[in-house]
Amino acid sequence: MQIIPIHTRVLTPPKDDLLEVIKESISEINEKSILVVSSKVVAIHEGRCISSEKIDKVDLIKQEADKYLPNDVTPDRKYPVTITNHVILGSAGVDESNGNGYYILLPKDSMKSAEEIRDFIKSEYHVKDVGVIITDSYSTPMRRGAINISLGYAGFNPLVDYRGEKDIFDRSFQVSVANVVDGLAAASGVSMGEGSTQTPLSMITSLPKSIEFTEVNTMAKDLDFFVDMESDRFKFLLDKLPWQKGGSDVK
C-alpha cells in the first residue's frame, strides 16, 4: 500500500473551490485508489466558515455539537467535549487554525460530501472504482497526541468482515470485523501532516484485495458502520456522563 501526500495551493476561508484545487493538483487518478481529503478544506469549499468576530466560540461549539458536556464536568478544559458525527471530539471540530479570522466548522454532511467529491472524480478522471475519505483529527483516551479518523467515506466498504473465516490455527472467527476506513484515515494523516504543510489531500494506492470497491455498501445488515450510543459497547461508560443536547437552539 502506498500513500502519497498531495501539496496544494492555500484554500482561503470563508469559501474556496476544492474541486478546482483537486484538478490543479492531481493529473491522474488510477482505478482502485482512494483520495483522502481533510474535512477542513471540504468545509471551506462548502462555505462552512464563520467570522470569529460574530460569535462566541463556546456558543458555536454547542450549536455544532450533537451532544456536549457542561463546563462543571470538565473544569480544566477551555472548550466543551462533544459528540459530533458519531465521534467524541473536542470543540465539535470547530477550528481556528489556518482560518485567517474564521472558525472553520465540519462539513454539514460528510457522507454526502464524500459522495459528491467521488462523483466529480469519476467524471473528471474517467475512473469507476475509486474511493473518498473525509478526515478530521481526534484524540483517544489515555494516549497523547491526535490521529486522523474518518467522518465520511464513499466508494468502498468501510469494514472487512472476517466472521466465519479461519485463523492460522483453524479456529473460526466469531466477532472479528476490521475497521479499514479509520485505519486508512489514520495512516494518511501521518503523510498529510498538520500546520503549514499545505497537504490537505493524499492518494492511497496498491490497496489490499480485502478492500471492496462498491457503489453501495454491501456489508451485512448487522454491520452498520456508525453505531448509536444506545448500541455502543462503551454505553456503560458514556451513559454515566451528563450529556447535554446540542444544536442551533442552544443558548
What is the structure about, briefly put?
With 251 residues, this protein is α+β, with helices and mostly antiparallel strands. 22% of the residues lie in helices and 23% in strands.
List keywords for this structure.
13 strands, 4-stranded antiparallel β-sheet, 6 helices, 60s Ribosomal Protein L30, Chain: A, 23% strand, 251 residues, 22% helix, alpha+beta
Give structural notes.
By secondary structure, this protein is α+β, with helices and mostly antiparallel strands. 22% of the residues lie in helices and 23% in strands. The chain has a domain at 28-48 and 106-183 and 192-241: 2-Layer Sandwich (60s Ribosomal Protein L30, Chain: A). It is built from six helices and 13 strands. The protein is globular and about 55 Å long.
Topology diagram in text:
Elements (H helix, E strand, L loop, with lengths): L1 E5 L11 H8 L7 E6 H7 L3 E3 L5 H8 L2 E2 L12 E4 L2 E4 L11 E3 L5 H16 L4 E9 L8 E8 L4 E3 L15 E3 H13 L8 E5 L29 H4 L5 E2 L6
Parallel strand pairs: 2-8
Antiparallel strand pairs: 1-12, 2-12, 3-7, 4-5, 4-13, 5-6, 8-9, 10-11
| Overall outline | globular
**Biggest sheet descriptor:** 5 strands, mixed
CATH fold type of the domain at 28-48 and 106-183 and 192-241? 60s Ribosomal Protein L30, Chain: A
**Radius of gyration using CA atoms only:** 19 Å
Structural class: alpha+beta
* Unreliable residue stretches: none
- What percentage of amino acids are in beta strands? 15-25%
| SSE arrangement, N to C | EHEHEHEEEEHEEEEHEHE
* CATH architectural type of the domain at 28-48 and 106-183 and 192-241: 2-Layer Sandwich
Strand order of the largest sheet: 1-12-2-8-9
Q: Tell me the total number of β-strands.
A: 13
Secondary structure: helix percent: 10-25%
Q: For the residues shown, what is the average pLDDT?
A: 92
The total count of helices amounts to 6
